[in-house]
Structures are given as C-alpha cells and as structure tokens.
Design a protein that fits this description.
Bound molecules: thymidine-5'-diphosphate, magnesium ion
Shape: globular
Mean pLDDT: 85
Number of helices: 8
Number of strands: 16
Helix content: 10-25%
Length: 373
C-alpha cells in the first residue's frame, strides 16, 4: 500500500515544510509544526468541476447585468444583532462569531436561530460541543417555543454538509468550527488545516446554495481566533464578543464586514433568560457612576454609526517603589504613557514616581482619539 503523503504545517501561520522543524522559518513560532495529510483527490475533482470550459461560472458578466435584488437582508429578530451585521443577514454570507469560552456565543445564536426560524424558515443548528439534549435544555431556559429548528450533534464536516443539502435550511449554524473535522484530512479537529478546510467547504455551501452560515470560533489564550487569522480572510463578516465574565453585559463588535460598517457595536445584557439587547448602552455604562467624584470623566465616542457615552476613571497614587506603574484597562497603555508624558512636559504635572491607573468602566474597549482629552 502506498504511504499517505503528509506535510508539516505551522499552526501559527500555515506555512508548510516537508519535514518537522522546531522553529517556523516564516513566522518564527517555536514547536508549531503538526503533521497533516495532503488532500489529493478532493481538490482535483473540486477544481475540475469548477473550471469546466464553457461552464456558467466562468463567464464574465457586464456590471449592469448583475442583479442586486438578491442582496435583501434577513432579520435575526434581535435588533442589536442585526445592527452589528450591518442591517441583517445577507443570504449566502459566511459569518464568524468569535469570543472566549462561556461568554455567550451559543446563547446568542440559539436565540437568533429561534427568532429567525419563526419568520424566515428552517434553521439547522449543528453543535459539536453539546448534545441535542443539552441544546434543548438551554432552549427551554431561553423560552424559544417551538421553532422550525433542526438540531444536529455532529462533528464530521461531510455529514453536516449532507444535512444542509437534505434539509435546505434558510440558515446554518456551526458551533464551533474548532470541533469540526473533515474526513479528507487526518489531523486532529481544531488544527489549522481542519479549521480552514471546514470554513472553505462551508463557504462553498453558503455561496452555492445561497444560505447564510454562522461559524462559532473560540478565541485562544493569546486573543486571536484559532487558527490565528486563518479564517478572517475566508469569511465575509467577523464578529467578536467582548466583555468580562463578572459584568452582566456583553458587547458584540464587527471587526470585518463585507456588507456593512466595521466597529459597529451591539450591546447585550446576560440575564437568567438569555441575552437581552440594550437599546441605550450609555445609560448602562454610566449607571454606577457616582456624581462629582474626582478622577471620573464621561467621554463620548463614536462606535460605528452611533455615539456612546462611557466613563473613564483615573487614579494617581504615590508609588512605594522606584519605578512607577502605568496600568490601563480598556484603553491602549501606550496612549496613556504618551498622555502622561504630555502632562509632564506641557502641563507641569510631576508624575514621576506616581502610579497611574486608567480604567474604562463597564468592560468596554475604546480607541476613540477624542478620549485623550
Ligand atoms: P454560552 O453561550 O454557552 O457560551 P459560549 O458558547 O460562548 O461558550 O454561555 C454560557 C454562559 O452564559 C454561562 O456562563 C451561563 C450563562 N447564561 C446565563 O447567564 N443565562 C442564560 O440564560 C444562559 C443560557 C446562559
Ligand atoms: Mg458554546
């Protein structure tokens, strides 16, 4: 029997090498090479069918002949979620929803799926992490009723695609892309090859059947969606969950959107019955602000298309040790250092030997330059 051809792939950057290496020559990551099988037959046939001479997809079309009627948006039934998506779900789009484990990705998508199923058609929710029973238990808690929602507890990509072709749903949710594996590759689920293969196959399914697909992606410890950046260029929209576990509210931010504005925010509150949209986020961020306290300032920042008021807190305290600490939460620490330097040089404040702490209340991250003031 002919031995399967394998290749070593860097899990950080996707670079390939014929043999194992301790350090990736391209990105410099250590111990990042994993053996993966070369997919032989599949790309050849896929390529052949896509590049048939005279095939429909191969002909160029005149700009004015391309119809835009299909670009109508479908509502998820949750207005804050529609807002981050740029006004609703675009048919045939592939959306990646990233976030730390336990932040509420599955909860939000289950709620959206249930609402969507009531108005727009059947939804396939494929979970590789939880059984149908577990998903249903959560659904009962969220009070989703009896929507046309198909649950599938499956991790095999080919099986998921079969079900998509059989059920022809109006929306597909894959939770999470890291648990999905393709039979064509031998590497473990969650490796960069598998994650990329799953995303690409689901992209073909989305575009081919004009069905929107949501992918859930867990964020690794270093803060990037695994495999790092490997999916962002494949998908149409990247949404990212922010927020702290001890705060009840969660922020969904659009990092990339081919169909709308980026840095659009959706604000939700986690309650006993799931995530509820917060129509007036400023009120939430300023709710705990004590009046007339030194070191607290309210700034207005533009997040996407809407202004939001947030509270910035600052504290200066004499350092017990020689080197003063500069800590910033929710704002760039380099920016804080720059502001401190400006205050020393221009405003005559002596901050050497003083610890400086800056915090943006509510767990939101701001990069608005106007906040400097
Ligand atoms: P989940 O959606 O499972 O997170 P993820 O899919 O991102 O890993 O969210 C789980 C958390 O949400 C868990 O800590 C419990 C909490 N939660 C509530 O507070 N209320 C609810 O109604 C639900 C369903 C979950
Ligand atoms: Mg989950």
């Amino acid at each position: 029997m002919k031995a399967a051809k394998t290749v070593f792939v860097c899990q950080e950057c996707g670079s390939q090498a014929p043999k194992w290496m301790g350090r990736c020559a391209d990105c410099g990551a250590w111990n990042s090479f994993v053996e993966e099988r070369v997919a032989e037959a599949a790309p050849a046939t896929a390529g052949a069918s896509r590049y048939t001479p005279g095939g429909l997809a191969a002909t160029a079309r005149l700009y004015e002949d391309v119809d835009v009627a299909s670009a109508t948006r479908l509502s998820t039934g949750i207005d804050e979620f529609d807002r981050v998506l740029g006004g609703g779900i675009v048919p045939g789009s592939l959306v990646l929803l990233g976030g730390e484990p336990g932040i509420g990705k599955s909860t939000l998508l289950l709620q959206a799926a249930a609402r969507f199923a009531e108005t727009c058609g059947a939804v396939l929710y494929s979970s590789g992490e939880e059984s149908e029973h577990q998903v249903k238990l959560r659904g009962e808690r969220l009070g989703v009723g009896r929507p046309r929602l198909y649950l599938l507890s499956e991790t095999c990509l080919e099986r998921i695609l079969e079900e998509v072709a059989r059920l022809r749903p109006a929306l597909v949710i894959v939770d999470s892309v890291q648990t999905v594996f393709s039979l064509k590759l031998q590497s473990a689920p969650g490796s960069i090859g598998q994650v990329r293969e799953a995303a690409t196959q689901l992209l073909f399914a989305a575009k081919g059947q004009n069905v929107p697909v949501f992918l859930v992606g867990h964020v690794t410890k270093d803060g990037s969606i695994a495999g790092p950046k490997a999916l962002e260029h494949v998908v149409d929209t990247v949404l990212y969950f922010e927020g702290e576990h001890h705060h009840a509210h969660r922020i969904v931010r659009a990092v990339k959107n081919r169909f709308g504005a980026v840095s659009e925010l959706g604000v939700f509150e986690m309650t006993g019955s799931g995530l509820h949209p917060v129509p007036n986020p400023s009120a939430l961020f300023l709710a705990e602000r004590p009046a007339a306290t030194p070191g607290s300032a309210v700034v207005c920042c533009m997040e996407g298309s809407r202004p939001i008021l947030v509270e910035v807190q600052a504290l200066v305290s004499t350092s017990a040790f020689g080197n003063a600490r500069r800590t910033a939460i929710g704002i760039d620490v380099n920016r804080v250092s720059l502001l401190i330097a400006v205050l020393e040089k221009r405003a005559g404040l002596a901050l050497v030997g003083e610890d400086v702490f800056v915090n943006v209340a509510g767990g939101i991250t701001i990069d608005e330059p106007a906040a400097d003031l």
